[in-house]
Amino acid sequence: MKFDIIGDIHGCYDELILLIEKLGYSMESGLPVHKDGRRLAFVGDAMDRGPNSYQTLLFLFNMQDHGLLLYSPGNHCNKLYRLAKGNKVQQTHGLETTVAELEAIPPSEKIQFYERYRRFYEALPLYVSLDDRKLIIAHAGIRENMIGEPFSKKVETFVLYGDITGKTHPDGRPVRRDWAKSYVGTPWIVYGHTPVLDARFVQRTVNIDTGCVFGGKLTAVRYPEMEIVSVPSLQPFFPEKFTSFDA
Ligand SMILES: [Mn+2]
To answer: 19, 51, 160, 192: which has the highest count of C-beta atoms within 10 A?
Structure first.
């Protein structure tokens, strides 16, 4: 089975559709269909910050309803889930844009959305394992020794937030270790979460969050070819949002 894994969308629905079509899928039926039977997969964080989180999520719900969804939830997905459950969460870091979209639709649809979103999230795995565990899709990455381990808070935190130290930079961003550098496993790890200008390959890992919502591009990686396919962002460019790593 061949897959096309798409990076962090963050409500950039127009770029998503352009990328899906560039990857060779037909959207005629409303669902992505590829003539070679390829499947789409996602590294998560489909919502928040961008212009069209609601439509992006309706698209993913439709894929899930048809048994087609391969999606590794991210920290933004988790936060929206906690909100959908009625927990008190801070409406910051982009969640406020999704909430504003939901406030603009009829209240009955909004209630329906939150109910549907809870089911969406509860049906997701913590990360996606494909091709006999030769391909792992995990939002912020995963350590080799965590693959196949039973659910734990520790693994969940790593997959959702990455290898955080608990410290923050002066501007408030969390300090994260570069876990990919020490990854020596055989499975390919496809992840996102940290915006980079270009897809970043390190060992058998690739970060495909190329910051579409910050004016970069929306990127997919083809598996098993490990080729990169991108479409340019339609959003304004904020260079300071991108992380650069030493080689
Ligand atoms: Mn994220």
So the answer is: 192
